[in-house]
Each structure stands twice: as structure tokens, then as C-alpha cells.
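REQUEST FORM: STRUCTURE PREDICTION
Request ID: SP-0412
Submitted by: Lab K.M.
Chain count: 1
Length (residues): 450
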Amino acid sequence: MSKSTDIRLLEVTAETENFAFRTPLKFGGQVVSDVVLLHVTTKVETRDGKRGEGFGSMPMANIWAWPGKQVSPDESLAAMIELARRLARQANDYQGIGHPLEITYELAEAYQSAADEVTGAAGLAEPMPRLAQLVAASPVEAAIHDAYGKTLGQNSYNLLSADFVSRDLSAYLTDEFAGEYLDRYTLRAPKASMPLYHLIGALDPLTDGDIETRIDDGLPETLPEWIAADGLTHLKIKLGGDDLPWDVERVVSIERVASEAQAARGCTSWCYSADFNEKCADVQYVLDFLARVGERSPEALERLQYIEQPTHRDLRANRENRMHEAAKIKPVVIDESLVDFESLQLSRELGYSGVALKACKGHSEALLMGAAAQKYGMFLCVQDLTCPGASFLHSASLSARIPTIAAIEGNARQYCPAANRGWAERFPSMFEITDGTLGTAALDGPGLGF
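STATUS: Completed
RESULT:
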């Protein structure tokens, strides 16, 4: 069932770019102070001879994607970069032709063997996790989808129907998706605007009293300063997961500081999300956390929208961590655990009620998991990876095109604003924030929208 719009890959190239963080970011017990971006450029051609070029970019977030026990951060980062380059070369040699969904599905079959070759050649003591493989491959996937849309002069999210894709969703998911295509689960135009989720890292100062030495670079430094400058209404809180009194006090303190700052600008409605980065020993920790926050600050508990990945990412090895009771109180979403459709199905069995999509796990994968989550009636959100520039706009385009996503997380403006230069000038509505929202209407161009 070939289409005249099917593409072949003509040339795929990759390069890296490094940026230091403005301030360190602590999550899951780890501190990150810089980022390596992997940029991919892809040239393609349709069956009927149209040619175009696409671009994809993503942080190689090894600290998050591969928190190895027998591999150092330097080793895991080097391995992920090498895998990304290798996958770009393999894509360059790929001889197939089809829709980007079909091409990336076939390319993904080689991720594991390529990763094994990389870790074997480097003599690493442990295999590369699937999550790290997906992150390394994601710029290639993004570039292919972007090139497809730009070649056809249309937004890639509008090229997901049976008119362009040869196989329905049952080929990628299960028979219950027979006859369905991704156009059913995506919007034909981006939402005009969306709230921004601002991150409060575990090291981030809440008030002036938490700062020893100010950066004084013109950007806000405390929570009240950020709230006033950006008009924030959505706050994501990084928690420890291994110190219940600290976690509870952190939320209560944020509620106190935020309440004062919001009152000063006349705001009466705002919300939180809580991210434990899988550090909770069990679901009882989550239940105790919710109970104690409710006792100390009922307002803070009421504002809490959802809880993200509280326990270990390996769901199969930790089946005792069932989230049913916690999910009765607040949506509990998987993040690190979500690496394929099987893991999504297992999460539902274990009581998770929501899914966090990430562009860094691959554009095709995000679209497929977004479709499945919608069909199953799960809570959906799109999470950031401290993505700057093109990678942030890519993440935002996903949020703006999936119907049930309510907000966009974007924290590179806090931790790595230097990497936004150039992009911020081209898309000011996505980087200059005054009322707590992003102008996602701007993401309506050809390709991935930017």
C-alpha cells in the first residue's frame, strides 16, 4: 500500500553541542550541571521526487536515562553519544521507503544490537538500558518526522491519517486499535496557548534566606521572583522520596511562599505536581506523604494535580509496588518506566492511572503511547528533560497537539537559558512568559511546527 508521499532517507548526519547550566539541578539524588545536545539533520525524498530537510535535537540525559551502578556518568554519557552517532549512520544506510512512523519502527529493531555493540566495544560492566537507547535515538526520529512534513509543506501532525500511513495502529499496538490511525488521537491545529509548568528543584532557593550568593544575571532566583516575573500558575516540585519529613516540609514551605507571592499579584488559583523520580521505597511512602501534607496544609494537597513515578522504574521486578490506593487520591503517572507498549499495559495492571510522555523517548513512541493512554482513559502529561531550544519546542508541540494534555513543562529557561538563544528570538511567545502561559499557536509551521 505504497503512497506517493512515502519518503526515503538520503542523508543523516549528527553532531553534538555542549552547554553549562546556569544553576545546578538536583533530582532523584543526583545533581546535573551541564548538558550535551545531540543534533541530527536528515535529507529525504518522496516517491514522486520532492526533497526536503529536517532537524531533530535532544539532550543526552544519561544521569536520568542510565543511572548505572557499575558504569560511571562519564562512561554512560560517552556510550549514549556513540550510540546516537551509530544510529544516525544506520539511518543513513537504511534503504526502506515509507511514512516516518513505519521507518522509525523498523529502525528501532536495531537499537538493542547497536547498543550491545557500543557497550561491548567500550568494555562496560552493564548493558545500556532501553530508556537510554530511546533517548539516544530520539533526535534521529525527530529529524525524520520533521523532514517529512517540511518536504510535503505541511505540519507533521496533520500527516498521520490513512491518506499517508499504510498500516493502522493495530500494527504497532493491539487489535483493539484496528482501523484507527494517529489522526484520531491528535489535533489538526495546536492549542492556542498552554500553561507552563515551572520546576522547583531540590536545591532551588525558595526565598532570599536560602541564597548564599546571588547570581545577579538578570533572571529571577527565588520562587516569588519567578512567580512575579512569569505569572506562574503551575509548579512542579522535585522531592527526595527517602526523607518523609523533608518532603512534607518542602511542599508545605512551597505552599506558604507561593501563597504570599500569588496574593501579592492577586492570583487565587494555582496548582502543583510532585515528582519523586522513583526514589520512594514503596507505595506506603506515597500514602504517608499525601496524608501528612493533607494534615499540615489541606490547601497544598488540594492543589496537587498528580504524582510522577514514585517507585522504581523496573515495574516487572517490583510488582509489589501497586499504586491503586494512591491513585484513588491523586493520579499516579509512569515516566521512567514507560519504554514500550508492554510497560504501559503492565503499569495499568499495577494501578498507575496516568502516563508521562517525553519527546526524548522518540516521536513515534510518544504518539503511540499518547494514543493508547487516551483510549484507556488515562491521565496524560508531557514531561520535560531540561530541553532547550529545538528540543523544548518539540516537546511543546507534542503537548499542543495531544487533546488531553493540559500544560507544558519547560525548565531550560531556568537552568540552561544560553541554549535557548536564537530559538527564543524566532519564537518569542514560547520563551517570553508573563502570564504563566506559552503561545503554542506559533507551532503551526511545516514539519514538527517550528
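NOTES: The chain has 16 helices and twelve strands.
Reviewed by: T.R.
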